[in-house]
């Protein structure tokens, strides 16, 4: 039973939140990208030769390189989040709420899709 629940969780967490366009060379945003960026969700291939063990480098330079890569990944993810996912939510909202200038006279109800964006909000 536990295995079925874990498989269902993996399926839900890897479903795409954004569309894959032809001009895009990256994978769509997925819920797992919030939890574990670049997560490898499949097991090892038994046909691949085993990797040779390499000690983890924890020198100052290696840690700085890792920190810079993490910072770049966060910036890339934040840009994709704001430009792809939030844009798709806005497009969906415009299709479902036919009002002039996307202005609602009534406050949102339970299960309504709303646009949330604050340009002054810090990322991360």
UniProtKB/TrEMBL annotation:
Q: Read off the Pfam families from this record.
A: DUF5641
Cross-referenced InterPro entries, in alphabetical order?
DUF5641 (IPR040676)
List the protein's name: DUF5641 domain-containing protein
Query: Species lineage, top-down?
Result: Eukaryota, Metazoa, Ecdysozoa, Nematoda, Chromadorea
Please state every residue range assigned to the domain named DUF5641.
67-121
Instruction: Give the top-rank taxon of the lineage listed in the UniProt record for this protein.
Output: Eukaryota
């Amino acid at each position: 039973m536990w295995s079925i629940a874990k498989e269902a969780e993996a399926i839900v967490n890897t479903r795409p939140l954004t569309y894959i366009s032809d001009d895009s060379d990256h994978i769509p945003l997925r819920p797992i990208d919030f939890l574990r960026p670049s997560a490898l969700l499949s097991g090892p291939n038994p046909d691949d030769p085993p990797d040779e063990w390499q000690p983890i480098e924890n020198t100052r330079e290696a840690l700085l390189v890792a920190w810079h890569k993490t910072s770049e990944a966060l910036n890339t993810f934040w840009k994709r989040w704001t430009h792809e996912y939030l844009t798709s939510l806005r497009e969906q909202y415009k299709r479902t709420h036919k009002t002039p200038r996307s202005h609602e006279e009534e406050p949102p109800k339970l299960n309504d899709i709303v646009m949330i964006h604050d340009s002054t909000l810090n990322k991360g």
